[in-house]
Amino acid sequence: MKIIRKGLLAYSLTGVILINNAFGYSQEERIKDMRAMEDGLQQMQKGFLYNNLQDIQKGAELLKKHTAKIEPPVEGADEFKRSYAYDLTKREANKIIKLADEAVKEYKEHRARQAMNNFTKILKQCMTCHARIRKW
Ligand code: HEC
User: Fold this and answer.
1) Which pTM was predicted?
2) Shortest-distance Cα residue to atom 14 of ligand 1
């Protein structure tokens, strides 16, 4: 009896994992990642304002970690829109990750203005994606 129950438990856990994979990246996950990205940006901004490299680095790491995970909403989109959305997401995410690294590097090398420049460019990438695919 015990063995059967264990078997059933393992079976239903597998089922949950399969269902999660079938549905892919959910809206909840996206919203969670987006909020974490915002937190990362805020921490970076705090670092600039308080002249604290550690905050800039930590914020950049948080931002990069979640940016690397994002996927666009494609429910109901046709093949064309779908591939456009994935391409755009990959491109914007890569830019954000690269800009975050550059911001840290510039700040470390005492080029605060260039670091801030990279920071504002990150925000622009966020807005590009929001304007193009957020409200499909
Ligand atoms: C792939 C394109 C894309 C990029 C790039 C992107 N976002 Fe988003 N963002 C979305 C979409 C789509 C939503 C709507 C979320 C939903 O309801 O599924 C969203 C929603 C949000 C929200 C609202 C979350 C909520 O609570 O409803 C915030 C905050 C946010 N994004 C921050 C950011 C920040 C900060 C960046 C840049 C570092 C960024 N986003 C880059 C697509 C993007």
Assistant:
1) 0.86
2) 134
C-alpha to C-alpha distance for 132 and 84, rounded to whole angstroms: 10
d(CA 49, CA 105): 17
Number of domains in the chain: 1
Q: Is residue 21 part of a domain?
A: no
In a domain, 122, yes or no: yes
pLDDT digits (tens, 9 = 90+) for 99-119: 999 999 999 999 999 999 999
Q: Which helix (H) or strand (E) holds 131?
A: none
CB 43, CB 55: distance < 8 Å: yes
pLDDT value at 20 more than 50:
no
Ligand 1 pocket test target in 34, 75, 92 with most atoms within 8 Å of CB = 34
The answer to whether position 11 is within a domain reads no
